[in-house]
Amino acid sequence: MCLFQRYGLSSPAPTPSTLPKGSGTALQNSHNEVVHDVQEEETYHTPQLDYKEPRWCHTMRLPNGEVTCFSPRGPNYRSTLGTRCELTCDRGFRLLGRASVQCMPTRRWSGTALCRQQRCHVLPLIFHGTYSCTKGVLVDSKCDYTCNPGYMIEGANSRMCQEGGTWSGREPTCADRDPPKIQCPLSRVRIADPGQLTAKVTWDPPVVKDTADVSLTDVTLVGQMPGSSFEEGIHVIRYKVYDQARNKAACKFVVRVEVRRCPTLPQPLHGYLTCSADGNNYGAECEYHCEQGYERQGPRLRVCQFDRSWSDVAPTCVQTEINVKVETAGALLDQFYDKRRLLIVSTPNKANEYYKLQELMLEKADCGLDMRKVTVIELLGRAPHAVGRIKDKHLDPMVIKELRLALRISRTFFSMVLLDKRGVDRERFREPVSLEELYSVIDMYLLNEEEHERLEPYKSLCD
């Protein structure tokens, strides 16, 4: 049987010149009509060739496939004489016949083809499981496997029908992997006794069972034993169990121990705390201390009480009162030595534009300068009308004169001098400066690391 008969294709019709005279052979034309060669004198006429005829051959069609034609007359002609067409099938179909045909002078194509749908074989069932497919056994059909309760799939849980009629991967299996069941006790909270930071906690053993094993004895505790003392905090208690097939199950619960505590006390501004015990548990005592240059106003101790509140009210650290009734600059500066920094503002008169601008900004700086331990001294005007003051407290004229001489501060123009805690001249300003610039100089060059740490939480208080 020839290829065209095997796949149901029509073969090119033989021409009279290829048949022996008087053979009596039956010919099958394109319309499936059988013509008998009964007379050897019968003549055949080849159609007159016309390359301009747009439909020399019938339009080539391929169900479930694609026909791509190239004509000598150009892309707009698909069936003129000499046109060649490439035949391809859609995904999931296989081409049977010619992959390339040409429009012949006989007004027929040089061959035919068809697209046959591809299929995979039916998958066998698996033990203790089943599968379901999206498209049966057609190409791109996906079959998902599931196992019966108590079984778990081993291998890929799906297979795909591929082009060529084969399934992807290998057949999975369902194996008995059902772990035992274990139920832990409920989580619990215990409160530590007053003055204690631990609590004793007990519980019943977990409940275990298995679908195959009658009894389970391989139960392991991970964590502290029941009846032991637990520290403050959250403790996770875990149990795990194995059946005879070494399948594992586990559970856990939480033991939380609470210690009765008061709110954590904030560090006082310009001071610090020292506390006993754990700092804020019931019975703890906290003592307030103030930095140099400040003194405490209020109770020295506060105690954490049973109702989780602190006794008394919080004391404050206030700046030590400065004695301005001294007769020398040295006596004045000694009160600030190693305790406070000084910002000395000097102006020839109160009408000075620089001074008025700087005064407006310093009016808003009391909080920021105080946190940085900076005291402002103003030296206004010239003798005999010179005025020196710290806020609303006036200085002795001799103190004013000695300050100008000791620090070389001119009476004729506006200036500011920034001194550190030891009285060393660290920065001078000839023009008004913003608070941001002033704070930046102090923070960068005058504060130590400890002061930086104490200042950071309170910066927002002055906004």
UniProtKB/TrEMBL annotation:
Primary localisation category: other
Occurrences of domain HYR (ranges): 175-259
Cysteine pairs bridged by disulfides in the record: C147-C174, C290-C317
All residue ranges annotated as the Sushi domain in the record: 67-117, 118-176, 260-319
Gene3D superfamilies: Complement Module, domain 1
InterPro entries from the UniProt entry: DUF4174, HYR_dom, SRPX-like, Sushi/SCR/CCP_sf, Sushi_SCR_CCP_dom
UniProt GO molecular function: signaling receptor binding
Compartments (UniProt record): Cell surface; Cytoplasm; Secreted; Synapse
Bias (Low complexity) ranges: 9-20
Cited SMART domains: CCP
GO cellular component: cell surface; cytoplasm; extracellular region; synapse
Transmembrane segments: none
Keywords annotated in UniProt: Angiogenesis, Cell adhesion, Cytoplasm, Disulfide bond, Repeat, Secreted, Signal, Sushi, Synapse
GO BP of this protein: angiogenesis; cell-cell adhesion; positive regulation of cell migration involved in sprouting angiogenesis; positive regulation of synapse assembly
Region of interest: Disordered: 7-29
Annotated protein name in UniProt: Sushi repeat-containing protein SRPX2
Gene that produces this protein: SRPX2
